[in-house]
Amino acid sequence: MEIVHSASVLDEMLQPFRLAGKTIGFVPTMGALHEGHATLVKRCAAENDLCVVSIFVNPTQFNNIEDLKHYPRTPEKDYLLLESIGTDIIFTPSVEEVYPEPDKRVFDFGMLDKVMEGHFRPGHFNGVAQVVSKLFTVVRPDKAYFGEKDFQQLAIVREMVRQLQLPVVIVGVPTVREADGLAMSSRNQRLSEEQKKNASQIQRVLRASDAMRGGYTPGQVADYVVGEINNVPGLSVEYYEIVDGNTLQPISSWEKTAYAVGCIAVFCGDVRLIDNIRYN
User: Fold this and answer.
1) Does residue 34 have an active-site annotation?
2) Are strands 235-244 and 271-279 parallel, antiparallel or unpaired?
3) For 71, 82, 246, 276, which has the most beta carbons within 10 A of its beta carbon?
4) What is the pLDDT of residues 199-219, one digit of tens each?
């Protein structure tokens, strides 16, 4: 396994593989890796000749400076994990390497980034699009892997690829969970054991809400979810929206779409957690 900090060095390393017609898979991360990331990397390694993983905490997607400052960073632990699961190259650029000058590009995603995360974290998805497009330009992967926990981000990346006409297949990978149902997240490292126990109730309530679909409207189901989670000690719902999985726009009746997804953001203390559920 190689650890590379320079885009030019990475390009030089990848060029022989491209010329030989080898497939390059890519997993972009912000580090503080867990089993969810490992699942992405293992799939990438299994489906491609070469597996590249980036570790870069991207400042342009944080609209809260405290969140950026407290984002967990565990590079040595990350390297050991990645080496053990088939990673060929780790790309760990500096901020100066990725942004030698400010990225002033502004993406237009229509209504995709105006709701949910986009509403509560203005500018977040523009930052995501900036960094992912830059990383795609450097790595030039055949396939790139993203977790479905970040459901709206996955939709944004797919739209960005469509707009920029990038020759990369975006692969969504199902959310990996703890035994108690809590969605794995780097932010979980900031939770106490008691907080983790409370946070596991998010998925319990979401699963319970799935059984209500036959007799209640999406609005009534959403009210149930918000009320139940807010009753859990230490949890506070920032938003819960039941949306069309393709447009990300809220639905007023189940008949409006065959692809209804509930997306939630919850504060557990000062740690912000997101999750989702598909209503079948």
Assistant:
1) no
2) unpaired
3) 82
4) 999 999 999 999 999 899 999
Integer Cα distance of 205 and 262 in angstroms: 11
Closest CA to 139 of 102, 93, 208: 93
Say if residue 69's pLDDT is above 90: no
CA distance 21 to 14: 11
- Judge contact between 177 and 183, C-beta under 8 A: yes
Q: Which domain holds residue 92?
A: 2-173
The CA distance from 275 to 215, in Å, is 24
> What is the Cα–Cα distance from 40 to 176, expressed in whole angstroms?
10
The mean pLDDT value of the chain amounts to 96
Residue 145 φ then ψ, to 5°: -115, 130
What pTM did the predictor assign? 0.94
Choose the catalytic residue: 37, 70, 119, 124: 37
Length of the chain measured in residues: 280
> Same structural domain for residues 27 and 116?
yes
* Residue the block writes with tokens 């009746």: 253
Q: Same domain, yes or no, for 154 and 241? A: no
